Amino acid sequence: MARFVIEGGHPLKGEINISGSKNAALPIMAAALLANGESIIENVPNLWDVRSMAFVLRALGAQVEDKDGAMRIKVPSRLYYEAPYELVKTMRASVLVLGPLLAKLKRARVSLPGGCSIGVRPVDLHLKGLAKMGVDIKINQGYIEAKAPRLKGARIRLDFASVGATEDLMIAAVLAKGRTIIENAAREPEITDLQEFLIKMGARIRGAGSPVITINGVDRVKGVHHKVIPDRIETGTFLLAGAATKGRILLKGANATHLKALINKLKETGVGIYTGKDFILVEGKANTVSADIITRPYPGFPTDLQPQMTSFLSICRGSSRITETIFENRFTHAAELQRMGADIEIDGKSIIVSGVKKLTGTSVMASDIRCGAALVVAGLAAHKQTKVLRIYHIDRGYENLEGKLTQLGAKIKRIK
């Protein structure tokens, strides 16, 4: 099993290009199933989760070719309606094929999904919304079995602003009869990018980025050419790595408007942040101070950056309270950081992080994508050597992480 070996204490310096957003690419890949013919999606990151979604699309009958970050998806007039457990179990986003299959084939059989162990994350919001659109749904031996003569427009209010449910229902509603209104919709930039892709296809949709999204169904859509937005979580991880190592990094192709909550908090701690149209420059400082964090749905502080922020705050002066409101199991990194000398106390849904002068490298284990990223950030800033185990989690969310860090002067090696 592969691991990272990191010699910490080297400030990161230089510039890198930010990859395309995994969390934008995956729903767009699923949405491509709506149209017969070819769609070309640019700026797709080379990640295991993306490859997993490609396997799912191929199992459904689509042709998928990925070359130099440009993915060609050719959809035949006839698709299969079943996404098997062997493929869906590895990645939660695979359930996003449910919406397009129902819209196009009037039936779907999709395995209940897998993914990171950071919380329950049920798919009940997907199913409740589809049921309002006239879908008959049964759960049978671990599979979602769904059918409908034709999806019909409906007013759907989500119990909470679920990104996955918002995306699935948006895609399904494109070919539904009549108008669909999704209330309490997720507002993430990835939702807006999906809307842009669907509009190019010929969908009649508006409201992404706000709590209410309206879709007027159409009879058919076409394949299109689209470029995926930059990955804001990768961007944030590098911002925190630069801050933690007291380095200076220019992130090219980054979108600062997608990271206002993080940028404001970093400025609050004393980190230098400078932004432009398509770049962010971070300058780490020697005497950064504590800050309190509460994770919220976008545009609040991202839960996917909370673990990495914990690593940074563990070496800032003062005491920080970090409260997690999205996922119930998202403090697995805390125990690993304690092994490195971090002073962290768990208090219900919060952790209290009291800054220490330095972390000390040791062997630590990634339990999910962002936990792994947090341990890499900590290892880069730590004294002595850090070994990060189970980095297959990290590979699901970061494209060539060690290559980009090496480009910035980090001493990091992948050992197989």
Describe the structure.
The chain has 416 residues and is an alpha/beta fold. The protein folds into 2 domains: 3-19 and 230-415, Enolpyruvate transferase domain (UDP-n-acetylglucosamine1-carboxyvinyl-transferase, Chain), CATH 3.65.10.10; 22-227, Enolpyruvate transferase domain (UDP-n-acetylglucosamine1-carboxyvinyl-transferase, Chain), CATH 3.65.10. Helices cover 31% and strands 26% of the residues. The chain has 14 helices and 24 strands. The strands form 6 sheets. It has a 4-stranded mixed sheet with strand order 22-23-1-24. It has a 4-stranded mixed sheet with strand order 2-15-17-16, with helices on one face. Helix 6 (163-173) links the parallel strand 10 (155-157) and strand 11 (179-183). The longest helix is centred in the middle third of the chain and has 13 residues, at 189-201. It is elongated, with a radius of gyration of 21 Å. The model is unreliable at 115-120 (pLDDT under 50).
In short:
This protein is of the alpha/beta class and 416 residues long. It contains 14 helices and 24 strands. The protein is 31% helix and 26% strand.
